[in-house]
Amino acid sequence: MNTPHFYPVGTPGQPWGDNERAAWRARQVVQRSYADDVVAALNALPEAFTVVQYGDLRAGADRYPLLLAMTRDWNPTLPTALVTGGVHGYETSGVHGALQFLQNHASAYAGRVNLIVAPCVCPWGYERIQRWNHDAFDPNRSFRDGGLITESAALMAWIAARNDNLQVHLDLHETTDSDAHEFDPALASRDGKAWVPESIPDGFYVIGNSENPEPDFQKALIAAVAPITHIAPADAQGHLVGLPLQSNGVVWGESRSIGACAGFTDARFATTTEVYPDSPRTSPSECNAAQVAAVCAGLDFALSSLSPP
Description:
The structure is a single chain. The chain is an alpha/beta fold. The chain has a single domain, classed as Zn peptidases (Aminopeptidase, 3-Layer(aba) Sandwich). The chain has eight helices and ten strands. The protein has a ten-stranded mixed beta sheet with strand order 1-2-4-3-5-10-6-9-8-7, with helices on both faces. The N and C termini lie far apart (54 Å). Keywords: Hydrolase, Metal-binding, Zinc. It holds the Pfam family AstE_AspA_cat.
């Protein structure tokens, strides 16, 4: 079913211009603090980690330091793992799951893998619980062509300049009810297209890079998360978010070609995690724990696979 009039900003059938983007931006309200929730947490990490500013984000009158934490005692002979959260700022457990991994679990990997954790790639969106950035661009479609927006370009450039032995990339996301009633309609309006409502999967799932899916790696994440929160079942067509189910809770989708964060590196083991925080069967703390479990399982599987027999 196509719905011709579905969003309070824009004219059906006409892509947004500057006026519509400004009208959309005026609707966004600060609801939480990047400085309090993310910057303070990073600065409180133990000395085993170094906090690095990899970029400077200017978003209208707002300015944000783009920060990550990395292993202080870096060993170039070890593999490197990248964890990203908050590429869509409204996806809360991606941000807090990455921070909880740093606070409570990352030290267990000392001497085994170099860690880079960027917990909140889009701070403007985090503060406003918004999918897009200040200019109504989707950061998770912008990790290509050198980076189309500051949020993606800064991280891509910093990673590229280091030339690390990057073997693992876990990008932490959520699928929420607001995708269906706010963000998908906004996207259709922004692009001047008809809105076709889609169903939201109820549970955790992962999207492996179709360019290099590593199915056993994806299955290991599902196995680790299943005791914590439920795994999303396929719909009547055997799909999740329009993608064919490959195994329990696992689908494969394009990453690099669409500019998704999980595809911008050459990491062999890469995935996008998705939790469903609006389910009555879970809670915010379980969603955070699911993200942490996925990160640990991904690291454990990769390290086991990369170790000599």
